[in-house]
Amino acid sequence: MLNMNFSQSLSLNYDASRWQPSPAAGVWRYPLERQQAESGHVTSLVRFEPDAHFPEHLHPMGEEFWVLEGTFSDEHGDYPAGSYVRNPPGSRHGSFTREGCVIFVKLNQFDEDDDVWLKVLPEQRLWITGGQGYRRLPLHHHGGVHTSVLHFPDGGAFPLCCYRQGLEILVLEGELLEGELLERELSVIQEPVKQEPVTQEQAGEASREAAHYPGLSWLRFPPGSRPRLQAGPGTRLWVRTGHLGANRAE
Question: Which residues of 89-113 are buried (b: 16+ CB within 10 A; e: fewer)?
Fold first, then answer.
């Protein structure tokens, strides 16, 4: 197993050295959470080299993916960067790419009655603009689980409403920050005051208090967590909420 204790907070910065070869030539995996080596609950990044193929396979409890780069394809169509697709439990397909691609994929995590095929292509996206300083792209909801993309054109605080029953985030682009340092940074921006020189000891304390998560970083928070998160300007986040029940642990 890998990172399957859903009662603990987890944050992984992207590390290019963590890519692993898959059974298919030219297809690489970057595991984030995994129940078993080739089956069960899996969340990962997958990279296809140009003209790579992955043989036909079954999704016992569903598959969903977001295309990060390039164009991902199967017998049902082509999915350019920014596409979101859900293949329900019992579905199967073979996948390939012509130009190469990178996808964020989650396997075997559907409810049994979540049986709707869904694809959202870039030209079909409908963004919702609210008064919180960010835009939201709803992707899917079922049984209290909500999946969306949040876009922060000018940066801003991550919404408190998104901490219910667990939270999962993939940084698509930009940067996410977490920690007490954020509150001091924001107060300086909102009410500029004369600052004393920062000592080396203070700088060390600040670095421990705040964490920075660049593109392709992955974070997961259990129900009841209240992390302080701040998105940098232009940041886009893939977000899932409501899916981490209290009884889901190793």
Answer: bebebebbbeebbbbbbbbbbbeee
Among 176, 217, 239, residue whose Cα is nearest residue 10: 217
* Domains detected in the chain: 10-122 (2.60.120.10), 126-241 (2.60.120.10)
pLDDT tens column, 40-56: 899 999 999 999 999 99
- pTM for this prediction: 0.86
How far CA 250 is from CA of 4, 91, 154, in Å, comes to 6, 27, 39
Are the beta carbons of 168 and 243 closer than 8 angstroms? yes
Give residue for tokens 């009884």: 247
pLDDT, tens digit (0-9, with 9 covering 90-100), for 108-132 = 999 999 999 999 999 999 999 977 8
3-state secondary structure of 201: helix
Please give the angle made by the CA atoms of 186, 190 and 196, to the nearest 5 degrees.
Answer: 75
- What's the rounded Cα separation, in Å, for the pair 226 and 74? 40
